[in-house]
Every structure is written in C-alpha cells, then in structure tokens.
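Q: Predict the bound structure with aspartic acid.
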Amino acid sequence: MGEPNGENKRESHYEMKLWLQIIIAMIAGMIVGVIMRLTGLDAKLLLPLGTVFLELVRMLVVLLIFASMTLGVTGVHDPKKLGRLGSKTLFFYFCTTIISIFVGIAFATYFEPGVGFSEEMANTPITITEPQSFSEIFVSIVPSNPFAALVSGNALQIIVFSIFLGVAINMSGEKGRPVKEAIESLADVMFQLTGIVMKFAPVGVFGIMAWVTGTLGIESLLKLAKFVLIYYVACILFVGIIFFGILRFIARLDPMKFMKGMWSAIVVAFSTGSSSASLPVSMKCIQENLGVSQNITGFVLPLGSTINMNGTALFQGMAAIFVAQVYDIHLDFYSVLIIVITATLSAVGTAGIPGQGFIMLSVVLTSVGLPYEGLFMLAAVDRLRDMIGTVLNVMGDAVVAVTLAKQEGELDELCYNQGIPELEGSEV
Ligand code: ASP
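A: Predicted complex:
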C-alpha cells in the first residue's frame, strides 16, 4: 500500500472523477433544497439518502481505525522512533489547536460579530445533550474490554488498544507475525471496501445538501451572516497561512500538490460535516495521492480524526467571544486564558460527527460563566460552520501526517510531486 503503482494511479483517476461527482451532487442538492423550501415541501424527505451513506461510512471506521492504527505501530520497530513519532504528532496537534483558538478569538475580537446583536434569538429552544466531563473522558479512554470498544465504536478506546496490541505484536517477534499478517490483510480489504462505499457518496451528499438548504431559515441565516462570514474567512486564512506555512517551511513541500491530492477528502469533509466519515477517503488520499507511508498514515490520521480538530477549536474560541459580545460581558485576561484551555480540551473531546463541536461549546461557555443560552443563537447556522470546520479538521491531520512522513523519510516525494495526472492542467 502507498506505492504509486499503476493500480493506485487508476484509483486516483477514479477519485478525481469522484470529487467532481460529489461537487455536482452538492450543487444539485442545494438547488433541490431551495426549491423544496420555496414550494413548501419537507426537505427532510431526502435526508435518508444522506443518512444511509453516513451509516455505510461509519460501518468502515471501526475496523479501519483498528487495523491501520495497529499496523502503524507495528511498522515502527524501534521503540525510540515510536516515542518520537508519538510525541511529535501530539506536539503538532497541540500547537495547531492552540493557534486555531487564538485565531478564532482574534477574529471575533477584531470584527465584533456579536456587538449590537439582538438577544431575542436566545429564546429559540433547542435540545442539547450533556457533554462528558474531562475526568470522565480521561478515565474512559482505556478499554476494559476491547471487543466492547469495537462494538460500541469508541474511537479513543480502539486507538489505545491498537497501540498496545501493535507494541505487543512487535515484541512477540516471529510468533506475532500471523496476527500482523491477518491485520495487514484486514487493512487492505477495508481499503477496498472504502472504494466501494465511496461510490455512493454523490447520492448521499445530494440528500444531505438538499436537507441542509431546505431546512435552513433565511432569516436566521441573515442575522448570523456576519459570524458565518468571519468564520469562513478565518478558516480560509488559517489554511493559507498556517497549514500552507507548515507544508512550505517545515516540510518543504508544495502546498498546491497537497490540495490536489487531498481534494476528494476535502469535498467529502465539507459535504458530510464529519471527520470520522472522511477518515477512510482521507487515508486513501494521503497514501495513494501524496505518497505517505502506511505506517505514518495509520499512526497519525486515526488519532488526529479523534483528537485534532482545528476548525472546531477555531469555532469555539470565536463563538465564546461572540456570545460575550451579544450579552455585553467583559472578559478579562484570566477568562480568555480559561477559554483557551477549555476550548483545547473540548476540541480534543469533540467526536468527529456533525454538530459535536457545537455541543462541546457549552463546556467552554460555562467555564467562564457565559450564558448557556448563547448556544441557541448559533444553532441555526451550525451546519454551515460545521462544513468548513470539518474541512480544517481533516486537513489539519493530513498536514501533520505529510510533514512527519517527510521528516521521518517516509514520504514518496515522487508520488507527492508528480500529482494526479488527470488533475494537471485545465481541470482544477
Ligand atoms: N463535525 C466536526 C467533525 O466531524 C466536529 C464539529 O462539530 O466541530 O470534525
């Protein structure tokens, strides 16, 4: 896996066409959604198409995380290298998360999207499920029963088990080889299955987009347009400055090639609003289009899709300041510091599914005594922010994976640089 052989190039060609199909489906879904809204038809009717697709993707995630993470660890025989890779990954994730929060806070402070905002919108009732506390999250990452973790799809527990299993397989030497080979074969099969499931992506995306545009109230959209606009601008600048900066100056790679290689994953992230749904295609992209080794992919991406959420962190920083502005609450330096800390933790605790970052925002708000009701105002446009936010979440993991692969000598630069033949030229 991960070699730019002929077969993989054929897959890349397929991927290229896939993203185009998804974009067309997205636009068609939006048009149908608007028409349904105007004609009074319930856009929820089309949602099952999207739900079935998301369920199909979720069907992949558990085994994919298990197989790729375990293989990622077994691929690193030297315990020192494993430690170095682990600490570098966490370091990159931590730094980019902190920067994201600061960017969110800075944009909201400068552009003041919440100043002069009517408080009436705070009365719109929505249902919020209680987030887990941090000590609960910390204790619960160790699985007492790995099968239960797999059955319940608890990503962090699966990752912890896979790391231990990978280390144990290596320590077992020859005797551990059959287990390793079985898991290798499982990973290959899951990759094939990903290709099959992604064929349904355009249909699913069509249903999701029709539902999003068909149910989004124009009134609430207009009221929150400034917030959404600032968020989109901040995200785009974040990609252009931070992500491209890391690729250009730390990894010394061309960021445009990165965008081309990742395009399918970006489109899937934008349309599904779910990093865990984007994980399979994201792994495929960085291995087959960007030449990242299987080890680094397996080690860095599943972990990132669970704990590294740059878009979510940026949103939480921005949203906390927005709510303070709406209610005209002054935040001192200490409160801002608490926001940075809680937003870091809550971004880590955010699951890679639509709307989770919004739920976790309640942790940030309550930590500094901001009104919980502030959430209600942002509910109407959460899906919109989630789409671009998820793109950042997915890209952030891939940027770290590519950078580490380059540093560890596990990047096939020929594959990275030659691009996807069909993407060169006029089509992008
Ligand atoms: N939907 C985001 C993701 O899956 C998480 C969030 O709600 O911010 O990455």
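A: The chain has a mean pLDDT of 84.
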